[in-house]
Amino acid sequence: MAKTLEGKSVVITGGAMGIGRAVAHAAAEQGANITILDVNETDGSATANEVGGRFLKLDVTDPEAWASVAEELGEPDYVHLNAGVMTTPASAPLEPGNILTVDLANYRRIMAINVDGVVYGLRALAPRMQAKGGVITVTASIAGFLAIPFDPAYAMSKHAMIGLVRSMGEVWADTNLTINAICPGMVDTAIVPDGLDSSAAMPPAVMAAEVIDLFLNGANGETRVKLADALPGQAIPAPDLGADLGD
Q1: Any residues with CB less than 8 A from the CB of 197 and at least 6 apart, and which?
Q2: Of 19, 57, 78, 178, which is the most buried if we count CB atoms within 10 A?
Q3: Which backbone phi and psi does 62 adopt, to 5 degrees?
């Protein structure tokens, strides 16, 4: 009998819009109980209402807020740590980025949301999930494998997520917890720069299907790339450099 999310609790950060919203709908269709976490109260509440779930306001960059929300969440079965931003607004000119001159406030913002937000989420929720087990899926990006000249800070943050997921997959190999990552190509969401040709961008629902499959079937430490609607998702293994750093 195929596994489903029927009756399971699913928590999604950045669930108000984009990929997170699509995951909420896909999980709800399987009978999951959805909690949307976001700073966007208007769209977050709307998404929660659409899927018959609940909305909790959360700034993922605030560890104290995470601790408070974790108390309300209890022991979730599945968590999608999805909240993320790029360095500049989508409407800004698409120009080569330079880590030497990027506005420091923007740099701190992207690191706080894309990196700290995931770390704080793991620290708040993983201990609660440990006893009964569960799955945490992180939204990384193909930017975690590639050079992104127009936004080096974004590329750095997504490289960090892939390193974190692969490493924690090893840490949790013999536990009840699973962690994995979805690494989308271009998706039709609000953070995609206007200057990019988005004609081939995938709808968020395509990525949501991959996230649901990672929940149900993903391996510990798996980093799965989905480049296009017509191409299957593909797990990308870490390169074998002939070195064992675990001893």
Answers
A1: none
A2: 19
A3: -110, 105
Structure tokens, 242: 């002939």
The HSE-up count of residue 127 (CA atoms within 13 Å, CB side) is 8
Residue 3 has pLDDT above 90, yes or no: no
Nearest-angstrom CA–CA distance, 102 and 107: 7
Task: Give the global pTM.
Answer: 0.93
Catalytic choice (78, 107, 120, 154): 154
Contact 170, 193 (CB under 8 A): no
* Helix axes 41-50 and 18-29, enclosed angle (nearest 10): 20
d(CA 183, CA 76): 23
What's the rounded Cα separation, in Å, for the pair 238 and 110?
25
Whether the Cβ atoms of residue 134 and residue 176 lie closer than 8 Å to each other:
yes
**Measured distance CA(28)–CA(30) in Å, rounded:** 5
pLDDT for the residue 32:
98
Q: Which tokens belong to 96?
A: 């080569």
How many CB atoms are located within 10 Å of the residue 111 CB? 17
Dihedral angle computed from the Cα positions of residues 91, 103, 153 and 89, in that order, rounded to the nearest 10 degrees: -10
- Tell which residue, 193, 10, 39, has the closest CA to residue 117: 39
**Both tokens of residue 209?**
């299907």
Interval 74-104: pLDDT, tens: 999 999 999 999 887 666 666 677 788 888 9
Apex 213 CA angle, 241 and 30, nearest 5: 165
- Among 177, 196, 97, 92, which residue's Cα sits nearest to residue 136? 177
